[in-house]
Structure formats: C-alpha cells, structure tokens
Amino acid sequence: MDETERGRKMIQIEKVGVIGAGSMGSAIAALAASYGLEVVLLDIKGEANNPSRVARLGIEQALTRGDFFVPEAINNIRVGNLNEHFDLLSTCDWIIEAVVEDATIKRELFLNLKAVLKPRAYISTNTSTFTLKQLLPSGLDEWTPRFYATHFFNPPRRHILCELTNLVGERDKFLDAFSTFLSRDLGRRVLVVKDTPGFVANRLGIYSWVRAIRLGDELGITPEEVDALTGPAIGRPRSATFKTIDFTGLDILVLGVKNLRDATGDDFVLPSWIEHLFRQGKLGRKSGAGIFRFEKGVAFTFDPHAREYRPFLEPAIPGLKEALSKPFPERIWFLLELSNVYGYFLRRLLADTFAYVLTVTPEISPDIVTVDKALEWGFGWSMGPYAQMDYLGLAKVKTLLEESGHGSAIEVLGRAIRHGRFFGENKFLDLKAGGFIPSHVSPNAATVRYVELRRALDEAGVVKGPEEVWLMRVGSVERAVEQIRKIEQEQPAALVLVLSIDPKYPYGQLLDAAEKGDEAEIQRILGVTGDLLLTLARLRMPMIAVLDTDLSGLNTMVGLIADVVMAPVQIFVSPEEPKDRIPPFGAAALIDSLNPSLGGIFSEAGLVQILKKSCLVYSNTDKALEDAVWLGTKLRISGIKRRIINRLWGFSDKLKEEVSSLQTNIKNDAFIDAIRAATREVHRRAQEKEVGKNVYDSKRADR
C-alpha cells in the first residue's frame, strides 16, 4: 500500500487542546478554530480578578493579527488557566504544547498531562529546537506511537508547512493517520522529517542566516547590502536576511541559535553586535527597533561597528542591477562571477551553505527531496540547495567548496559527481548508498507530487495527472470547450476541473455589454457560456469540480452538474449568506427540468444551498487535487448523472431556451437592475475581503 492509500485512514479529532497562548500557540488555536474544531487554550494563571487573562489576551491578539478566517471562529475557543482548568484537556483528542523553549518546563508539563490524558489521544510539541527524545519523560513509553513534533511555521494561516516527526523513526499507521489529519483538516503541507534538533528547515535555514550575518560582519558589508544580496538576487524572499529577522524577532534568532549550538555543537555563532541588540531589548518590529528602526517615516539602520543607528543607506552594489534583470536562477551565475567583495561574499555564502547541507542531510532528513522542499516551503527559497547545485553544475560546486576549504563536503559531493547530478527523471540520489532511487520511495513523495502537480496546472492550465486522470484549470470560458474536447480524445479515466471563474460571470459581463448596447458581445458571451455547460453536461466520464473561488455565477452551475464537488473551507466558515448572490447561469434550466418530477422544491438560492451541503470540504488545495485524482480513479459512473439530467430531465433543451430568453431579457430594465444589484453585492464583498487583507498586512507591517 503506497503513502497516498495509507493516508486515507482517517482519525477522529474534534477537540484540540493548546497549551501556551503566545504568538504561536494562539495562532495554532485560531487556525484549528477556523477549521471548525473545538479548542481549549490554556496558559499560566493571571491575577485573582482575571485568572485566565493570559490566554484571553493571546486569543485577542490572534484576532487582531488576522489569524482567524472569520472573527466568529473565536467562539470555538474556550480559554482558561493551567491551575484551574487543566482537567479540560481530558476531553481533547489532540493536545499540542507551545510553551517557552525550555526542555525542563516541557517535560514537567508532559508529566502532568499523564493524569488527565484520554486514552488514544495524540500529543505533540511545537518545538523548533529540541528532539522528542529530549522531551519525553521517563515512564511514558506508552506515548511513543502518538507522541509527535509538529513544527508549525509562523504565522500558520499564511505559512502552511508543518514538519512532522515521531519517536518510532519511520512512518507507521499512526503517523500516516495524524499526517492526514494535519493536511486535510488543518490545511498543512506536511513533511515527515527525522527527530533531530531544529529538524530540517530551521537547522539549515538558520545556519544560512548565521553565515550571511557573519560573512557580512567579517567583510564590512552593511546590513542593507547583505539584504540586497540574500533576497531575490539568489532566489530568496524579499525580506532577505535582516528584514526577516526584524520581523520574527531577534530574541527568536538569538535563543534559537543558542539552542541549536548547544544541541548540535555546530558553528551556530552570531557576531557580538547582534547579542548587544538582544541585551538592549531591541528585538525588531515587536519592540519598535531592531536592526532597522523607523521614526516619522524615516528609516534608520543599526551600524554594527559604530554600535549606533544611522540613516538607511540604499545599497549601490556594482553588477546587482544587471543581475536582477536576468531570470532566476540564471542571475546566480552572473553574481558568482563578480570580482568584487560582493561576489566573494556570495561564493563563500553558497559554499558554506552547500557544505553544511551536504554534511548533515543524512542525519536530519530522510532524503534530499525533503531538504529542498523544507527550505522552499518553510523559508521561501525559490530553489532548494540540491536543485541549485544541479543547476550550477557539480564541477562548479566542487570549485566553490575547494576555495572555501570544505574537504569533508567534497567527499559527499563526489557521490553525486559519479552520477553527474543529484536528481534524475523520477529519481534522486541516496547520499548514504550513493545510488539513485525512485522518487516514489521518499516518505514525502505524495506531498511533493501534488504540490508540483498544482504548480504545473497553474502554469500550463491543463496537465495529465496520475492514473490517466486529467486536470484542467478553468479561469475563463474562452477556449475552455476546445480544451475539454482535446482532453476527451485522450480517453481519460476522469476529468478534474479546478474552477476559478470570476464569481460575477456571466451576468456582470452581460450587464456591461447591455449598457454599452453591444449586441455582438451579448451573443458571444451567451454562446460560449452555453456551449461550455452543454459540453460538460454531455461528458461521458467522471467529473470532479474543485472550487477555487466563490459559489456564484457559472462556478455554481458547473458544480451542480459535476459528479463530485470539492470546496474550500473558507466558503463555509462565515455564518452570513450573501443577500444578493449572483445566480448560477443555467440554474433556471435545471430548475425548470427538475420541477415536473420533484414538485417545484428548488430555487436558485436552494440550489446553492444543496451544493454547499453536498460538497466535500477541503482545507489544502494540494490535498484537494490528490483527493480529486483518487476519486477520479475510484468513480465508475461514466457520466450517469449527466445522462439523467440531459435525457430524463431535458436539461440541454431547457438551457437553450434559457439562453434564448436571456437574449431578449438582457435589454429589460428590471433584469438589468436585478443583476446590477447582485453584481454590486459581489463587488462589495470582494472589496471587504481586500480591505480586511490590507488592514491585516498593515498591522503586520507595523508590529
């Protein structure tokens, strides 16, 4: 049984206990509550007149940060304190601790949990530093199968990677089931890693930060210049090194580096000026000043040598502008060839990073695939280190390592040199054995496969997935029929349609054309829209619709005639229903054909409600595609639903009548007024979401 099949064994987790209401704990609680789970959030006891103040404050701050999908989800959380409400954890199916990074405190907490934990409950720690072996108290061996590290990334609503590891040291039925819960119920992109300090992403990502900081310090390169060189220039986020540290907090960096140094003995050492800022309480945005500071809109930078702030200096690095004009990763080659101090900085940084990655990968990761994806998904790298080495060429990488004196890493690199590269077609190099192994052997193969499938779908619009299932993104009706007919010629096992059509389509576009008096455009819109629905209604293969937008307009109708519909959880979490939802195009035809046999119980609003109640809800688009493909291989219906709609209920004829009626009514003032009102409502809601997003982003920027 492969990983995908094993992962379908579900576990029932309805109630979650979160211990620790700091920024991470409260954000995890908000995430679980937003996905409809019941949550208990506990922290230390406050003053006598407000004993649960700490937990309550944490959840209020989560609300302010925008950690909830909708504010109403806060009602799914019960707050309390560890002294008076510890027994509330006895009814939880999963308990996660997110307290301060202190191994002694965590072990004591787990010992106390033993007395209240329900049988078969899952327990996890959100540590980003300690191993499970360090945290499991003696005498709790019975926890072994259900004791995990679940390393969420902050903020979890935006960063969906979760590193997962267990004490067993390999995948088993418990890990598979819990991983499935994290991905399907909490929207996580799960990577199974080894139980080592910092796991994969933090161990390697923080090391690269430390090297960038120290090299900049040694070479006299300013913080602004370091950021200019370690951001998009080498395929990393715009926040680069120092801006990212200021955002997450210097305290997180300093304490994390210390813990990694103590746990691994590796070269995790920061320059003294970083420690100086930490001792001064200048922790970044959370304290109002860190490496950067803003006063009345003016930016200042901490000068590491003068130990004081000075005005921000826009970097003027020779060759950088030209490099950025080139596509990634081509620009890396250009930057490495710079003969100035900046070129030397980058050559050393990449050499040191590659050397560390090569040396520790067998210890921390099941394979090189997991290393690349952990840094791409967790730290925002455009290309993981092994893919980068393949791109640069192993001869070039060897030269970089030789120039920087990394002899032991060259020995590991030699195993790849013998094969010419780290990755081949559907295979990758096993660093221990020194030979290629098939990609599907990776414990994270399914996760990676469907992330890559989604990326390919977004880029190409149409892709052939596993098991002869084809996937097509429908963002516009233009040429959609042509694409579907091409897919039909391939005789696919099933068709997965990812729907992202404008929610006001086609009525908003018809309204615009009517107000302009553009008869030809009205005819064209009605023609292509009707053709698409008729083409889909006549398909003789299983069809799964994955909604990637709102339940309005044409998206709704396509969903109604699909065999299975999958919709994002965000559609369901809001208790409020739009008063003037754009009606599904073709709904009148379906209602008209259903009425004779079903007594007229349907309305356009009713059809939307039926669709909502019959949808499979997903929280993670990657997993939605995986489930859709799996369903496509299991469905053996060959379009029975659509044959009944067409032949028994006469949908095709009714749709043609509706199109004809629209051609007449589109000029009717009452029709135009009704559609205009519905269109305005859709626009208003879209603007509210955008305003909310902007407010959230600005609050994050101000912190």
From TrEMBL:
One Pfam family, short name: 3HCDH_N
Gene3D superfamilies: 1.10.1040.50, NAD(P)-binding Rossmann-like Domain (3.40.50.720)
Ranges for domain 3-hydroxyacyl-CoA dehydrogenase NAD binding: 15-196
Keywords recorded for this protein, A-Z: Membrane, Oxidoreductase, Transmembrane, Transmembrane helix
GO BP, sorted A to Z: fatty acid metabolic process
Stretches assigned to the 3-hydroxyacyl-CoA dehydrogenase C-terminal domain: 198-292, 343-402
Transmembrane portions of the chain: 16-37
Top-rank taxon: Bacteria
Entry keyword annotation includes DNA-binding: no
Listed GO MF terms: NAD+ binding; oxidoreductase activity, acting on the CH-OH group of donors, NAD or NADP as acceptor
InterPro entries documented for this protein: 3-OHacyl-CoA_DH_NAD-bd (IPR006176), 3HC_DH_C (IPR006108), 6-PGluconate_DH-like_C_sf (IPR008927), NAD(P)-bd_dom_sf (IPR036291)
Protein name, UniProt field: 3-hydroxyacyl-CoA dehydrogenase
Species this protein is from: Thermus thermamylovorans
